[in-house]
Prior knowledge:
There is one protein chain. Mean pLDDT is 84; it is low at 65-78. This protein has 3 domains: 1-79, no CATH class; 80-189, no CATH class; 190-230, no CATH class. The protein is an alpha+beta fold and 231 residues long. The longest helix is centred in the first third of the chain and has 30 residues, at 46-75. The protein has helices spanning 11-18, 22-38, 46-75, 82-99, 106-114, 128-139, 145-158, 160-189; strands at residues 202-204, 207-210, 215-220, 225-230. The protein is 60% helix and 8% strand. It has a 4-stranded antiparallel beta sheet, with no helix packed on it. Helix 4 crosses helix 5.
Amino acid sequence: xxxxxxxxxxxxxxxxxxxxxxxxxxxxxxxxxxxxxxxxxxxxxxxxxxxxxxxxxxxxxxxxxxxxxxxxxxxxxxxxxxxxxxxxxxxxxxxxxxxxxxxxxxxxxxxxxxxxxxxxxxxxxxxxxxxxxxxxxxxxxxxxxxxxxxxxxxxxxxxxxxxxxxxxxxxxxxxxxxxxxxxxxxxxxxxxxxxxxxxxxxxxxxxxxxxxxxxxxxxxxxxxxxxxxxx
Length: 231
């Protein structure tokens, strides 16, 4: 069993727990402490486990990064072989920022990586970088590009209200994207003729029908298929 005298709990983990119902918060705080200090996995199942997994991964990421930095300082530098991997992570952050209108250098990308948020938030699609860039563009349209960049950088690192709002924004975007994809699939797979007689179909609201064969054709979102039935 691993055991550490300290561990790092990020603001993201704290915010995740704060959004839970009151009767669940203590259990998750205890789970975070037991895992961070002693490596003890909580006995969560189902939905509780799905809530726990990103917390656990973030603890691992933050704690491992902290211990690596400490060890590197004692040894005089990063372990051999880490340079390319670390630069690849920084390039991902730099490219994601550039895709949304903001150029940052290696030093700034490293600050983003080290500011305590879930590392997955920095990855596309629908990254925290995209969210902040959109918010800056919406709220500061009349600012110069230089001023917008300063706001963007500060917001990524320090604006806790945006960190609290980001999960809902991402969830809403994912739902919107899923609905759009479902609509496109629905139209793409929509029958053009009757499955029985090959005749032209009529349509009433969202349902198709063949009057001659007395058949209806309805789209089921659960299976994402069009299914035929008798009148």
